[in-house]
Amino acid sequence: MPGKLQQRRGHRDHLRRETFLGLDVAAPPVNLFRPGILLALRIAERFGAVAVAGCMLVTVDLSSVHRYGVGARFYDVLSGERLVYRTGRVAAIELLALGAGDRVLDVGCGTGLSLPLLVDAVGPDGRIVGVDASSEMLERARRRVVRNRWEHVDLVRGAAGDVARLAAGPFDAALFTYSLAIVDDWRRAWRQTLTLVRPGGRIAVVDTALPIGGWRILAPVARLAMFTGGVHASRQVWRMVAADTVETTHRVLNGGHVHVAVGSVVANDSRPSGTVPDPRDQR
After folding, report:
1. Considering the domain boundaries, does residue 67 fall inside one?
2. Any idea where the Methyltransferase domain is (predicted)?
3. Are 237 and 126 part of one and the same domain?
4. pLDDT per position in the chain (283 positions), as tens?
5. Residues 114 and 204 in one domain
6. Which end of the chain is more exposed for a tag (fewer CB within 10 A), N or C?
7. Do residues 43 and 180 both lie within one domain?
8. What total of structural domains would you count in the chain?
């Protein structure tokens, strides 16, 4: 029996050492539409997270920062941005109602997928600050900035929970696009970001949930994508907007898979009591 267990562990370690497109693979690429999809899901749950790349399943390391660091090179292609997630990004930035010259904070900016939309919204007189914990993801964002010669975009590396130390407010708007549900100290990140937005400014949260209604047929794919990204779906982070801001708007897109919530920030002394201040934020 010990021999068989050791053999299984050795096989598992061998799987973990396999690579595909530079990612750690815990199972051979599997066609998403083959009958073996359930087996692939179980393999994924056993050995690691799963990335959906077209019709391929690729497993990667489970740690959040490492996951995005390893996958940074292929993130824009593999993330499903064009097919699924761009709609939420566009909706959030439209609802922020940005104007020329506005200062915007992008928390968890990743490879900078929101930057083109933000640059267009604030114009050359505006200022955009992007914060991300992954140096590899941020490097992709920097290349995007240099390539487009955006001199009014600043990128800072650091944890979202330390955003108050990393970015100097006040900002006219802030946004979390597919980031608040994956960061470790998410409540702290939210509270600190609120303090950086001026009273009357806007804040947006875009994140994911499992699809509902007739879209449930796509739930396995959505679950894979969320598992890959390290999304903590139980947080339902968009609810923070309704709890802590006013004049809120909540849109549900793509069959319930994408949630967009936007609200106006009020002064600290008149803020709704949706979240309790964390003493650590006063350090």
Report:
1. no
2. 104-201
3. yes
4. 555 444 444 443 333 333 222 333 333 333 333 333 444 344 333 333 333 333 333 333 344 444 443 444 444 444 444 565 789 989 999 999 999 999 999 999 988 999 999 999 999 999 999 999 888 889 999 999 999 999 999 999 999 999 999 999 899 999 999 889 888 889 999 999 999 999 999 999 998 777 777 777 777 776 776 667 667 777 888 899 999 999 999 999 878 878 999 999 998 645 554 443 433 343 3
5. yes
6. N
7. no
8. 2
Distance of alpha carbon 243 from alpha carbon 2, whole angstroms: 54
Residue at 219 is within a domain: yes
Q: Which three-class secondary structure string do you get for the chain?
A: CHHHHHHHHHHHHHHHHCEECCEECCCCCCCCCCCCHHHHHHHHHHHCEEEEECCEEEEECCCHHHHHHHHHHHHHHHCCHHHHHHHHHHHHHHHHCCCCCCEEEEECCCCCCCHHHHHHHHCCCCEEEEEECCHHHHHHHHHHHHHHCCCCEEEEECCHHHHHHHCCCCEEEEEEECCCCCCCCHHHHHHHHHHHEEEEEEEEEEEECCCCHHHHHHHHHHHHHHHHHCCCHHHCCCHHHHHHCEEEEEEEEHHHCEEEEEEECCCHHHCCCCCCCCHHHHC
Check whether residue 237 and residue 113 sit in a common domain: yes
* Burial class (CB within 10 angstroms; exposed 0-12, middle 13-18, buried 19+) of 248: middle
Q: Assess whether 137 and 35 both reside in one domain.
A: no
Dist. CA 28–CA 117, nearest whole Å: 37
Domain presence at residue 101: yes
